[in-house]
Amino acid sequence: MQDIKTPKTNRFQISILAGALAAIFLNSASLAESLSADHKETSEKSVDALLSLSFEDLIKIEVVSIGFFAMERKRSPGNSYVLSLDQIENSPARSLSDLIDMNVVGMDVGEHRFNSTLIGSRGVTVDNNAKTLVMMDLWQLNQRQHMGYMLPAKNPLMGDIQSIEVIMGPGAIVHGSGAMNGFINMISKTGSSHEGTEVNFEYGDIEQYASAEVSYGKKWSEQKDFYIYVGVQNTQGFTPDNQYNQTAYPGYEYNDLQTKKTYDKNYKISSNFKNHSFSLKALHVMFNEETSHWIYADSSWPISPRKFAFFGISPKYIQEIDEHNSIEYIGAIEYSDFGGRNRKDPENPFPFGTKENHFEGKVIFKNKYETSKLAIGVLWGKRKFENGKTYFIDNPTLPFPNDDGVTGSWEEGALFLEDTLTIGEKTTLSLGLRYDYVSYGTATTSDNLASDLDSESHTTPRAAVAYDITNDSTIKFSYQEGFRYPDMAYYSWWIFHNETLKSGGHELPTLTPETMKSYELGYFSKINNNLTLTANAYHSVYKNQLGWVNFDRENPYISPAAYDYATSVNGWLGSFMNQENEISTIGGELIVNWSFEDDHDLNMGVSKVKMKDFQEKRYPPLQVKATLTSKYLDNRLSIVFNHHYNFGLSKGDHSNMHSDYKEARSVFNASAKYSFSDSFNAKLSIINIFENDTPKYTFDLSSPWLTASGNNHRYIYLNANYKI
Q: Over the stretch 131-140, which tens digit does the pLDDT of each residue have?
């Protein structure tokens, strides 16, 4: 197999990196001049304070991403999880997708052979993550060409993350398009929470994984700090022993397959700077993965090795008018690439890809009193997409641009408000309304077909109420909505076939936003000082779902005569379309958190979901997740056992489903971390201890070899961490 050479870094990347480093060092120098001897409180105190929270304190932790104001979890709309720093560092999980898969009841992580990680939620797993919004400190990271936040979800470089909030259900009232089926907010470390230097190394034997992470934080005062993180990693990959009896594509050998492999540059750089009312976040990621299926790809689908790059900054300024009123000014500037390499010909692995940039400004007025919290805001942004060109990764080799990429742009805007009222001592009421619009420009496909796209708009309400039955139990109900505009790549084949149809006097229906309505009833009870119970029941209705359609002659979109005309010209007819039928889910989650004998914590949950009118079901109908954390030797030794159980799928859920998916997926994981001193610790992690060989759910349930090769192996990782 031909080696892949590291491409030359282009001028744009050099400029971005040079500018980022210059800004970092200039800020560091100016901050160093203002260093005060009166503010030398170490970050260890802040971290120790967080880790030493009592069970009751942990119950009262607030979530910041559910609304415009932080809210106690038991009163917040929907169901939420908060994964703490202790859980992240002690867990056998190594990436965002691992943490969700092991800990979040009601979500399931699968894989797509082209698009990478799939985050399914409450019964719905589609071919990308565009329905699940991923953020860092409320800064939206989803790409809008096509993929959402997919490939970077499996990036193990997580050393800059302090905690993670996972919210089930929609959140469009706060976050707009894309926050349909849950949203995830990664909260980053700061110079106040992590002062000093920290170094982390990790090694994985089976795939020869190696990574190094370094961070530095400085706190000058309660209102001034700085933090920077750099992580690099590489994985050689390995040849798995289970290929589901498939043979390689002609021109390749079985041993050519290297699953769990990365190539070229893989790194992450992030920084946080705060100076009183002003803060600035920066993030740069390069993650390139060799997939586990490319030697099995047929001649029409040879594209698979994937590359992702992102650079962005997000400034924020808070203007305090008085003790009750403030105005927040929030911006974002982002540049991102998504691409890969065509491996059909071993001698010519040409690259392909698209680039996207995003500029956004948001202003939020906040009025805060003891019994009322009001937020009113406005947003404006612009996105530009260019197919066949990239900022950071290989320059694509034309004339082979990505068929699923489109060149174009859109402007987006929003008006929103939310009022949270405390009525008496027991009732919390949240009411909100949001109006979004998007104005498209001209979209051009890879074969230079152009179309002027219609503008779209959407109005989203929220109504939620929580009532404290007693001091230790709360019941709540919420009605929320979510929506998503069509991603730009959805117009690729739509334009191609629509131009053909128009030449014959026919036309495809216009793509419109997909929507979701969610009704949820929740209950929380602190049974005693060591035991809590959380229960949720939900009913979600999805309308105008965006998905791929292979047209038959009898279809709900165009007439048989139009179908005959299109296929006579193009030979086939398929496009992303709004699904005609509504689909719905009804289900619930039951979660128990039990702290016993002071040194042991058990978090266990079960979820059940019934899917109605789904053409194909790619989500476990029953799911159980449990994590037991035990600490010994004055908390110097932490041992974590995790079990994730997915009920098998029924053959009727997928007409061509592979028989392996009938079996339950029962995966056991474990980790042990020992602190040799306050400065040094080491951790051993074991993934899939008993080598369960049921593949993860994938978008191609008929072909597990396309994404699941290697899932049956046991993975062992060694980690060493040193704090200076």
A: 889 999 999 9
